[in-house]
Amino acid sequence: MNHAETDRRPSSQVWSEATASRYDDTLGWMGTSEAVEPVVDALARLAGSGRALEFAVGTGRIAVPLAARGVPVEGIELSAPMVEKLRTKADAGTVPVTLGDMATTRVPGEFSLVYLVYNTISNLLTQQEQVECFRNAARHLIPGGRFVIELGVPPLRRLPPGQLACPFEVTEEHLGFDVVDPVTQRLTSHHHWPARGVHGQSEHRYIWPAECDLMAQMAGLAPEHRAADWHGSEFTAESDSHVSVWRRPAPS
């Protein structure tokens, strides 16, 4: 959820009040303790005794339980309605939030951990803004601090020639599929909840893991670890997501 430079409109969509009000209800499995706890466990270990900053903090799915673990957490969020929803779970003293975009907004102080979860960096729809997001993370980190992202691997291997739509979930409760443009690296995620008669879609620019590494290098960050999930499973050619960690080198 990005607000790029002050002289142009943000590339990513700003979640409306209507979307924010039902956001948590659409998370499905991602909103369960089984999905959230491994994320919080890993982030708490990476933060150590330092402060954590979540880019695109949303309604606090991760920030609120991470703060409950005793990790000081702050957030950056473009959508005011999403922050209002977060405020029903935690006050501003527990999880302070700065309204703005994750590519350029600066929060005072330094952090041992900056993180982005649930594919959110792909909400930035240009490569330039994604590079600036990495640079913004690096600006917030103490020497030795880490930047972590959770991101899906583009599903192009699952597309036969000539097909541009790829389902990612088909259940009685939820129908989800992505429409991919390989030329522009743009992806539109479509969601339909039949029982509620609700349809939604979101725009993304997908990024390959190797492209993430190059963005990190441009931001002065060094690769530390890549896994297939928050449990630390090995990342392979068959993995459909990755959790990647880069570190800001300490002065020699």
TrEMBL record:
Keyword Transferase attributed: yes
Gene3D superfamilies recorded: Vaccinia Virus protein VP39
SUPFAM superfamilies associated with the record: S-adenosyl-L-methionine-dependent methyltransferases
Domain of life the protein comes from: Bacteria
CDD domains to which the protein is assigned, alphabetical: AdoMet_MTases
Domain Methyltransferase: 53-145
InterPro entries: Methyltransf_25, SAM-dependent_MTases_sf
GO MF annotation: an example: methyltransferase activity
Keyword tags: Methyltransferase, Transferase
Protein name in the entry: SAM-dependent methyltransferase
Annotated organism of origin: Nesterenkonia xinjiangensis
